[in-house]
């Protein structure tokens, strides 16, 4: 199998896409898998605030599309944090430039981690997104990190990746510091209690990713 393009997104905002991207960036590093990471919240970025090696791009522009997709073989995984409202457009672009055909031909792997919210509008995105990926792998993800409750989930979400809630103080501290989760856990100057919460939470997150073989090459 060729390089793996991993897209994290949703058309609805406020569902915690960047938190998921941050865990995935750490997940691949923890598995010794090389990763190129991109933030599409141009021009300033949100994902980049936590990881210096993340590059901010505007995927509506051809120059930045080339920057991301012309160099896939520079790393085993290309991780893209898609800003709100841009997921459908990005999938349409991948279809237009033939990348989804590459999946069918076995030249590369594309996975879409579709982070949904707790509203009906977010649930309604699931089927439309699944149809748009045309052979790529579509994972629905329920992000409980900030205590979001999901009720009335449709059948299309029954096999979703589930991210548990993180201790509020640990989450707020890591966000305030603007560091990665693994970096926070490794920082000996931080609270051992909060690091313990973060470590236990991240272990559960990684297990959820292992279950759907996101680390398979």
From TrEMBL:
Name used for this protein in its record: CobQ/CobB/MinD/ParA nucleotide binding domain-containing protein
Organism for this UniProt entry: Bradyrhizobium septentrionale
């Amino acid at each position: 199998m060729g390089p793996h393009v991993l897209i994290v997104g949703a058309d609805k905002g406020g569902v915690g896409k960047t938190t998921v991207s941050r865990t995935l960036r750490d997940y691949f590093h923890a598995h010794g898998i090389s990763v190129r990471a991109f933030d599409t919240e141009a021009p300033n970025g949100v994902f980049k605030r936590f990881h210096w090696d993340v590059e901010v791009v505007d995927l509506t522009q051809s120059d930045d599309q080339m920057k991301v997709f012309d160099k896939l073989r520079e790393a085993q995984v290309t991780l893209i944090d898609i800003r709100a409202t841009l997921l459908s457009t990005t999938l349409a672009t991948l279809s237009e430039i033939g990348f989804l055909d590459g999946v069918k031909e076995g030249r590369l792997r594309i996975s879409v981690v579709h982070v949904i919210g707790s509203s009906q509008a977010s649930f309604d995105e699931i089927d439309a997104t699944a149809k748009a990926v045309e052979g790529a792998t579509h994972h629905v993800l329920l992000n409980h990190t900030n205590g979001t409750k999901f009720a009335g989930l449709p059948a299309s979400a029954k096999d979703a990746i589930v991210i548990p809630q993180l201790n509020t103080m640990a989450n707020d501290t890591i966000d305030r510091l603007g560091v990665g989760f693994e970096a926070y856990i490794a920082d000996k100057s931080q609270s051992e209690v909060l690091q313990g919460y973060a470590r236990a939470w991240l272990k559960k997150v990684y297990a959820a990713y292992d279950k759907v073989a996101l680390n398979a090459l």
